[in-house]
Structure formats: C-alpha cells, structure tokens
Amino acid sequence: MPELSIVVVNYNTRQATTACLRSVIDASPGVDLELVVVDNGSVDGSVEAFRAEFPDASVIAAGENLGFARGVNLGARAAAGSWLLLLNPDTITLPGSLASLLDFARTHPEYGIFGGRTLRPDGGVDPSSCWGAPSLWSLAMFATMASTAFKRSPIFDPESLGAWPRDTVREVPIITGCLLLVRRDDWQRLGGMDEEYFLYGEDAEFSLRAARAGLRRVIVPAAEIVHEVGGSSDAGGAKGCMVMAGKVTLLRKTWSPARASVGVRLLVAGVGVRAGLETLTRRTRAPWRTVWRRRADWIDGYPRAEATLFGRELASAS
Q1: pTM of the model
Q2: 58 pairs with which residues across the strands?
Q3: Where does the record place the Galactosyltransferase C-terminal domain (predicted)?
Q4: What is the dihedral of CA 252, 253, 256, 260, to 10 degrees?
Q5: Which of the following CATH numbers is that of domain 4-133+160-227: 3.90.550.10, 3.30.450.40, 3.30.300.70, 3.40.50.2300?
Q6: Distant-in-sequence, close-in-space partners of 253: CB < 8 Å, separation ≥ 6
Q7: What angle do CA 72, 78, 83 make, to 5 degrees?
Q8: Tens-place pLDDT, residues 112-157
Q9: Residue 269 needs a FRET pair 20 to 30 A away by CA distance; which of 5, 43, 46, 234 works?
C-alpha cells in the first residue's frame, strides 16, 4: 500500500498533464507514491497517452466531464494511500517538494489540511495556493473596487492575505485544490468534495468545512510547484462566469440566507462596476462585460449554473 496517493483530474490537457505527472516522478525519488489520473471525457487522446507513458498509474476514464469535485472524489475512491494529494494538471512539481510536504505533515499532526507555495512560470509568486475566507467586508471591497485599487492590502483586499509571499509556515483559512494534502481518514470523515459544485469554489467550501470539523489549514513553503493558472478552462469572461458561480454557491451553502443574499448582491455590484469601466474605457478585451451580460447564468450558483453555463442536463438527485 503506498503512503501517498496523488489525484490529478485531466480534461483535454494531455501535454500539460503528462508534464505534470513526469515532474512528480522526477522530483520525488524515495517517496512511496501512486498516481491516480481521472480523465473527464477528453478527446485529445489523453487516456491512451497516460496509460502508455505511465503504466504503473491508475488511469480512470470517466467518459464525460464530471467537473472537478466529482472527478476528485472518483479518484480518491480509487486511491490506496494513507495520504491524499490533490494536484492540478497544469503544475510542475519542483525537486524535493512533495517529500518536504509529506515530512511536515507527518511531524505536525496538529494540522489537518496542508498546502504549498505556487510559482508562476516566470518564477514570480502565484498567491492562489491559499486565500482568506470571504466576508461581507471583503465583498464590499470587491463591489467598490477597493480590492482592485489597493491590491494585496490586508484591509481593502483581505481575501488575498496581504502581500505575504507564501514563504513562511502560516495557518490560513482556505487551501486551494491545485496543491492540497490531507490524511485519507480525514478526507473520508469530511465526505470529500461537495459534488454540487462543478468547477471553482469546491476547494474553498472543503477548507471551511474542514475548519468546522476542527482541522487546521497550513501553508508549507518548502512544497513548491509551478502553476500555469487556468490550464483546463477558458480564459476571460467564460472563466469569470464559472468563478462567480462558485462564489455564489459558496455563500449560499455556508452563510445564512439573509447574509448570503447581501453577499450575492455585492458580487453582482462588483461585476457591474467593472463591466461599466470596461465600456467607458472602450477596452477591446472586456471579460467583465461577458460576466455581467451572462449574470443570469451564474447568479443562482450551482447546480443550476452547471446547466446554464455548460449546456448540460443536471444530474439526478440520486
């Protein structure tokens, strides 16, 4: 039985995922690990390529696009390790990172969810390995664009966690799913990811649910990966719609109805302000206008947004 099971969900990113898996193997000599790849109905030859290049990996052909939460849960059910690591397919693991992450987790049982330090391809820090939890204040700052005007401000952009470069061990509210380590027993106790989400927001909900269960979340800076953000989703307005659907779902599932209603209105206001500015400045690339124009598609959150944004029939409640 392996100690560490690494779960990667792939969707038409054959080359990037191949590089990701190869980097895991090359960067982790001595780590007792297994690779579990869930393919979400790719049409780029992913399944055949992975099985040929990584014969020891468990490659699961889902046959359709399950989204992230369902894909991860499917992979976790097939995993045998005592630790589960969720890893994005658009990442490159740096030498020694997984060994450092696992060693920290073994020697610090006071924590329950572990993340790392993500870098952009140019070597700069990508802060999206972790976030602060949303609040009415943070959403008001989004609505007024203060979080954009004072980016990385701990007061006006609190969800960014300030200018901290993720280079110290630090407890945080949310660990993102691009690099997330958890004990298998804790994963099962929490019930895995919430499958009502399709894409974006499910990792935030998982972290907040873990917090309610008493699991502390921590960043381990020695665990470094390079992250090409958004490798399996469209950039611009389409991705923005998915992100907003995830945010709305998170508020409605974790806040009281009255508080969530206010929070959603602040999100809509923030999108509207940004879309208006794009119109006034006559920008040729105007993703926020797309998000604003399609607000009816995401304003109810998931599961309805899965149908409106992706043109899919909703899964049955069973």
Answers
A1: 0.93
A2: 36
A3: 174-222
A4: -20
A5: 3.90.550.10
A6: 194, 196, 205
A7: 75
A8: 999 999 999 999 999 999 999 999 999 999 999 999 999 999 999 9
A9: 234
Q: 73-127, pLDDT tens digit by residue?
A: 999 999 999 999 999 999 999 999 999 999 999 999 999 999 999 999 999 999 9
- The phi and psi torsions of 293 (rounded to 5 degrees) equal -60, -30
Token output for 152 = 């990385």
What length is written for the chain? 318
Instruction: Read off the tokens for 48.
Output: 């055949």
